[in-house]
Amino acid sequence: MRESDFRTSVMSLDLNFAPVLKGWEALLHGTLVTIEITACALVLGCIIGLLVGIGRLNPKRYVVYSLCTTYITLIRGTPLLVQLFIWYYGLPRLDIMLPAFFCGVIGLGLYSGAYISEIVRGSIQSVDRGQMEAARSMGMSYTQAMLKIILPQAVVRMIPPLGNEFIALIKNSALISLITIHDVMHEGARIISTSYRDLEVYLGIALIYLILTSITTLALRKLETKLRAGGMVQ
Q1: pTM of the entire structure?
Q2: Phi, psi angle pair for 64, to nearest 5°
Q3: Burial of 166 (0-12, 13-18, 19+ CB in 10 A)
Q4: DSSP characters over 112-180
Q5: Which of 12, 49, 77, 80 has the greatest number of C-beta atoms within 10 Å?
Q6: Contacts for 165 with CB less than 8 Å, ≥ 6 apart
């Protein structure tokens, strides 16, 4: 396409954001659902990630280590969309009926947990091993040393990579609309079905996701800056 033709096509582009503004209540409701599911999935992912990450620290515990490794391999090796479809469309074949909201939280939580577990494992292993040995020599059990000595230091080191995972989780949540959850993408699709202004609606949805990820990024940067100022992050 010649430059003149491109300019003509851009100038003739008819954008009408009235349907987006008119449907702001539906988009707001969808945004709140997105935030709710993402928050629940984040909590679930952090719990799973912590347990699986610790479970992969000691290969000598063969059963636990193998189960954790298998979980990570399966989750990270298959698409999130396929996993969500298995939870929502596949389980009913086994007479297991779960609400769409629950399927979305489980799907996103398990998926995020697999990545968080590697962050947890790497952060814990980055702490000097001598600190564990010193804690054990003082009479602490492995669990006590992990909770009181190792994890507090590891958590601080997890913040930057966890921030990236949190942002990825927000963006991945766009897929839950495909299992009939009324998130912001689903509400946007309803507006498109009546207004036929798909470009404008998708631009509005993109702006919403941009705002959510920007707020998350800003909050994490402030937290990291605060920790650096306190000398807790190297």
Answers
A1: 0.84
A2: -65, -45
A3: buried
A4: HHHHHHHHHHHHHHTS-HHHHHHHHHTT--HHHHIIIIIHHHHHHHHHHHHHHHHHHHHHHGGGGGGGT
A5: 49
A6: 45, 112, 115, 116, 119
Q: For residues 66 and 186, what is the distance between their CA atoms, to the nearest angstrom?
A: 39
**C-beta atoms surrounding 8 within 10 Å:** 12
Q: Which of 200, 195, 191 is CA-nearest to residue 15? A: 200
Cβ–Cβ < 8 Å for 233, 159: yes
pLDDT at 67 over 90: yes
Residue labelled with tokens 């202004």: 197
Looking up tokens 């009479």, which residue turns up? 139
Show the tokens assigned to 95. 């007479």
Write down all domains in the chain, each with its CATH number in brackets: 23-230 (1.10.3720.10)
Reading the block at residue 212, the tokens are 């959510």
- 58 Cβ contact partners less than 8 Å away, ≥ 6 residues apart: 64, 65
Encoded tokens for 97 = 């009926």
SS3 232: coil
Rounded Cα distance, 61 and 75, in Å: 21
Q: What is the pLDDT of residues 20-60, one digit of tens each?
A: 889 899 999 999 999 999 999 999 999 999 999 989 988 88
192 token code pair: 């498109």
Tokens of 87: 């939870």
The tally of CA atoms less than 13 A away on the side-chain side of residue 136 is 8
Sign of CA dihedral 61, 64, 68, 70: positive
Determine the pLDDT at residue 231. 52
